[in-house]
């Protein structure tokens, strides 16, 4: 930080709203009729589309720490987790509104950074920031973002459609965000180890928006979500919504080399990071056996990443883990609960 | 509060989400395709409509105090201020998503009350609660609601359309919410005075949703907003967006008898409550001279309330106040700024 500190409380609400508009480029699409500056933003949806709406909050000290992330990372992350929910319905975003709760003593430079990071992702994902609200808080910085999106009528992919026999797939390696978080929590224990991939997973998660479009257009998917709580917790969400069980194959779960090395340095099991870590924001979906193999090559080529099959949907209710030796155990649900954090 | 206290932290995120669904009735319209329980809510908009989107937050200790409002009032109020923004575009709501930040030690009964009050307004306004998010906070209870609505294509009414010669109208008495707030702040000073109207204005503001529909359908409105910051501040928003000035006639501003008596008991000017108080959530609009008079009778009959003309849009930039003796003064902007609260 250089130069004079200007506090949010010195600048005032309306000057701050004016200031932040400089970070927001005019949206390139024609769907935005009216952006910031009136009682509501106004959008023109496509004909024959359904609307999809999602909201999520991030609070300092609960979801991130200021010594772990730059303000730009926090802005990116807050928008990314919402856009990821749009991807998880196989839709695309129309626009976002941002509700900020700010302590009056906060440096305006922090808010500038937040909006800079948000705008980077907004541009990458064609998700213009079209409105918001700003209020004082007696607590810490909190960012609540709501994203409106659309999907062709009847083509949203829900959690509730998984059927016995479906293959379970993920769009990338798992456990990276957990490895990044642990590297920040225990820097001495991982000193000297490469961690740039893991830190990027944690600080700048990539919503798999284009990947979800590709999959919806090229294959029949029975169920789809994004991995925010961890594979063990989120797969349980699919199973409960669909009335089915699942088997995960331990040696099929994709784990990045950095994640393995960081886990080993911490005397932890890399598979535990991948199954329970959460916040990877890769997609997890189920599809009938013949659907995915024929499109894997095109997917690799287009996105420079691989679709990986991690298990099978079965009858029943249990989610189990099959070891390479053939033994099978019931997988405990250890996904993240905001009010009762699970152990690592 | 009776019975055993169950804390949010004891119940956990997912059990709490399940619990809250009992407070939410199935939406009666056919526009909701998928409600709570997936990555996004899914909605079917009307053909040929534009979408409108607004968000607002309310935090304990900043926007309300627990000794002033029941949890039901807080829930009502949080949704009402958002639905009021939908009314201020002359649209109607499609659905709302609710992001709650809750301290783990909070009694679950408080959350029940919050949702009970929200659901009361949601039913009255046909604005189903279709999704949300719940997270822990290290601070106080905070509620951020986002409402999606729609309006026939090209028929949203903005702040920016006011023209010199327009009449300025409001949909009801002003200053009531301020009187209610002062009655709560200084109970001894107003002891014995009737305050039920004023308290209702503060605790249970009524979005003028149906009134805005009536006005859009029956007259040509040039500009429209809801009075959240106070007439002096909000009329300035219209003037700045439209590049015009305005004159308010002091003796035309409608003030409820209770508001007058409470102001007098506090040695305050009732007109100051009405001009600068804020949070009345009546509509303020401008229209050409011949538009409103012919529909006033029907409006009265339908809504049991009166449209009141409070002034005139003029060339220039200033907002002035004309006294009954013909003198005219520039009206200072004393609307609410979240980071720099104005004096009473």
From TrEMBL, chains A, B:
Binding of Mg(2+) 5, residues: 229
UniProt-recorded Gene Ontology molecular function terms: ATP binding; magnesium ion binding; thiamine-phosphate kinase activity
Record-annotated PurM-like C-terminal domain positions: 163-319
Pathway(s) served: Cofactor biosynthesis; thiamine diphosphate biosynthesis; thiamine diphosphate from thiamine phosphate: step 1/1
Sites where the protein binds Mg(2+) 1: 55-56, 133
Domain PurM-like N-terminal: 37-151
Enzyme Commission number(s) of this protein: 2.7.4.16
Top-rank EC class of the record's enzyme: transferase
Annotated binding of Mg(2+) 2, by residue: 56, 85
UniProt-listed SUPFAM superfamilies: PurM C-terminal domain-like, PurM N-terminal domain-like
Annotated residues for binding of ATP: 115, 132-133, 159, 228
Key words, A-Z: ATP-binding, Kinase, Magnesium, Metal-binding, Nucleotide-binding, Thiamine biosynthesis, Transferase
GO BP annotations, alphabetical order: thiamine biosynthetic process; thiamine diphosphate biosynthetic process
Reactions this protein catalyses: thiamine phosphate + ATP = thiamine diphosphate + ADP
Residues holding Mg(2+) 3: 39, 85, 226
Binding residues for Mg(2+) 4: 39, 54, 85
Positions with a binding annotation for substrate: 63, 279, 336
Other remarks on this protein: Reaction mechanism of ThiL seems to utilize a direct, inline transfer of the gamma-phosphate of ATP to TMP rather than a phosphorylated enzyme intermediate.
Stored NCBIfam families: thiL
Role, per record: Catalyzes the ATP-dependent phosphorylation of thiamine-monophosphate (TMP) to form thiamine-pyrophosphate (TPP), the active form of vitamin B1.
Similarity-based family: Belongs to the thiamine-monophosphate kinase family.
Protein name: Thiamine-monophosphate kinase
Organism, scientific name: Candidatus Entotheonella gemina
Name of the encoding gene: thiL
């Amino acid at each position: 930080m250089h130069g004079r500190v200007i506090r949010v409380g010195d600048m005032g609400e309306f000057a701050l709203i004016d200031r932040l508009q400089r970070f927001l480029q005019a949206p390139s699409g024609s769907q935005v009729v009216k952006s910031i500056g009136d009682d509501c933003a106004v959008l023109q949806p496509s004909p024959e589309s359904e609307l999809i709406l999602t909201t999520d909050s991030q609070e300092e000290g609960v979801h991130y720490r200021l010594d772990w992330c730059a303000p730009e990372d926090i802005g990116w992350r807050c928008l990314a987790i919402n856009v990821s929910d749009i991807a998880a319905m196989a839709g695309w975003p129309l626009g976002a509104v941002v509700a900020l709760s700010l302590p009056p003593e906060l440096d305006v430079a922090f808010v500038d950074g937040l909006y800079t990071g948000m705008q980077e992702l907004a541009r990458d994902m064609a998700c213009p920031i079209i409105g918001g609200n700003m209020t004082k808080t007696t607590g810490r910085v909190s960012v609540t973002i709501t994203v409106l999106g659309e999907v062709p009528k009847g083509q949203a992919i829900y959690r509730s459609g998984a059927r016995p026999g479906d293959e379970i797939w993920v769009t990338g390696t798992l456990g990276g965000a957990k490895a990044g978080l642990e590297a920040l929590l225990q820097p001495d224990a991982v000193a000297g180890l490469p961690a740039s991939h893991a830190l990027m997973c944690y600080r700048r998660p990539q919503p798999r928006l284009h990947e979800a479009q590709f999959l919806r257009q090229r294959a029949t998917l029975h169920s789809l979500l994004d991995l925010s709580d961890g594979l063990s917790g989120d797969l349980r969400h699919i199973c409960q919504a669909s009335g089915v069980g699942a088997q995960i194959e331990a040696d099929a779960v994709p784990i990045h080399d950095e994640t393995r090395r960081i886990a080993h340095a911490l005397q932890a099991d890399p598979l535990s990071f991948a199954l329970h870590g959460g916040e990877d924001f890769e997609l997890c979906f189920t599809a009938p056996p013949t659907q995915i193999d024929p499109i894997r090559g095109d997917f690799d080529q287009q996105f420079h990443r691989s679709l990986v099959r991690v298990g099978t949907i079965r009858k029943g209710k249990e989610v189990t883990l099959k070891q390479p030796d053939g033994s099978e155990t019931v997988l405990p649900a250890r996904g993240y609960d905001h009010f009762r954090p699970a152990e690592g």
